[in-house]
Specification:
The protein is of the alpha+beta class. It has helices at 44-47, 72-81, 98-101, 139-142, 180-200, 223-226; strands at 13-15, 52-54, 111-116, 119-125, 128-131, 133-134, 157-158, 164-167. Strand 4 (119-125) and strand 5 (128-131) form a beta hairpin. The radius of gyration is 20 Å and the shape is globular.
Length: 245
């Protein structure tokens, strides 16, 4: 990455990815190391990526944080750095990470949601991750060589009434299901966040959820607001994708 035009002291560089390695395509898809399963699952092998932030003079060298973050935080962080006032008529999934990156605070309390389609499969707060649904899809492709009883289930299992709790700091590979007092501690930490999330969430209309390539991305909802709607081919029929969860 070249920073010559702006100078190192005025440039934030972020290295991350959009999902874990795709085990489906084997040697061409990468390796998730000790993490469970891969892309297209809500286990950490499918959702967890490296997050490296570089900004000399602002982010202390060698700083490591246990802060939970998502790629959606980059938008909010960049907006705050640019001194932009975000519209107040909507909810934002991201948070400003700069107080943590700069060392001003150690951690910002927050929850991270693990969705598949419009169903929340898992949630994490602090060290605890709670699975409300489990599904390894086609197990031999998405979780090759990995089998965790009651967790990597080839069929979709609704565990909302009896969630599975994992201590991700001691068990980043999600191999040991907590029980007893440890499980109760995890549930007490995560469940209030989940309850608030579900009662306040306002479902949005997917902008790019079209399976028909003739329609995809031509005129998504909201394009009128920015004056950038492209004409939809007349011979195409709009068809929404169906989620298989």
């Amino acid at each position: 990455v070249s920073t010559q035009s702006t100078g190192d002291d005025n440039t934030l560089v972020v290295f991350t990815s959009d999902n874990g390695a795709e085990t489906l395509i084997k040697q061409n898809g990468g390796n998730n190391g000790p993490l469970l399963c891969g892309k297209q699952t809500t286990f950490d092998g499918g959702m967890r990526e490296p997050g490296i932030f570089w900004w000399p003079g602002v982010i202390p060298p060698g700083r490591v944080t246990h802060q939970l973050g998502t790629t959606m935080d980059i938008f909010v962080t960049a907006a705050r750095l640019a001194h932009l006032d975000l519209p107040s008529d909507r909810q934002y999934d991201g948070i400003d990470l700069m107080p943590v990156l700069s060392g001003e605070v150690e951690e910002i309390p927050r929850a991270v949601w693990f969705y598949r389609g419009n169903e929340m499969f898992a949630a994490r707060v602090g060290r605890y991750k709670v699975h409300y649904w489990t599904w390894s899809h086609q197990h031999y492709q998405f979780c090759p060589g990995q089998l965790v009883s009651n967790l990597t289930t080839p069929d979709q299992v609704n565990r909302t009434l009896d969630p599975i709790v994992i201590d991700m700091e001691n068990d980043p590979g999600e191999k040991y299901l907590l029980g007893g007092r440890a499980r109760n501690t995890g549930l007490k930490m995560v469940q209030p966040w989940v309850n608030k999330h579900k009662t306040t969430l306002v479902p949005g209309e997917p902008s790019l959820n079209y399976c028909d390539n003739m329609v995809k991305n031509w005129a998504p909802p909201g394009c009128e607001d920015i004056g950038y709607c492209l004409p939809v081919p007349s011979e195409s029929t709009i068809k929404l994708c169906g989620w298989d969860h």
